[in-house]
Amino acid sequence: QVQLVESGGGLVQTGGSLRLSCAASEISGSLYDMNWYRQAPGKQRELVAGINRGGITNYADSVKDRFTISRDNAKNSVYLQMNNLKPEDTAVYYCNMEKVLGLRRNYWGQGTQVTVSS
C-alpha cells in the first residue's frame, strides 16, 4: 500500500525557516510529479509549489523567492525549504504525488502543521 510520510513541520517565529520532507513507499518516484499544497483554517487547499518529472518547478506567487522545492528520485522523496516565513504561511502542508502518464495515480500525505508566530 502506497504511503506518503511527511515530516518537518512545527512552530517558528516570523522570519524563520523550516524544511518539510515527504517520502513515499511502494512507488517509483521518477514517474511522478510531486507537489506541496497547504490549507489554512477556513480556506481552500492551495498549491504552494510543484516539481515535475523533468525537474521543472513552479511556485505560488505568495512564496516565490522564499520557498524552494526539490526532489530525490532515488529516495522517492520531495522537499520544501521554507525561508523568511510569515504568519500567513501558517497552514497544514500536504505532500502530493501524481502520475499522469499511463495508469493515472494520485497520492496524498497526512499533512504536517506549520505555525508561524508574529
Task: Furnish the topology, listing elements before pairings.
Elements: E1 3-7, E2 10-13, E3 18-25, E4 33-39, E5 46-51, E6 57-59, E7 67-72, E8 77-82, E9 91-99, E10 105-108, E11 112-117
Parallel strand pairs: 2-11
Antiparallel strand pairs: 1-3, 3-8, 4-5, 4-9, 5-6, 7-8, 9-10, 9-11
Give the N-to-C terminal Cα separation. 40 Å
What structural class do the secondary elements suggest? mainly beta
Indicate the radius of gyration in whole angstroms.
Answer: 14 Å
Most strands sheet: 7 strands, mixed
Low confidence ranges: none
Beta percentage is over 45%
Number of strands: 11
Total helical segments: 0
Envelope shape: globular
What is the ordering of alpha helices and beta strands?
EEEEEEEEEEE
Helical content class? under 10%
Mean pLDDT: 96
Task: State the main characteristics.
single chain, 118 residues, mainly beta, seven-stranded mixed sheet, 11 strands, 54% strand, globular
Tell me about this structure:
This protein has 118 residues and is mainly β. Strands 2, 4, 5, 6, 9, 10 and 11 form a seven-stranded mixed sheet that branches. It has strands at 3-7, 10-13, 18-25, 33-39, 46-51, 57-59, 67-72, 77-82, 91-99, 105-108, 112-117. The chain contains no helices and eleven strands. The N and C termini lie far apart (40 Å).
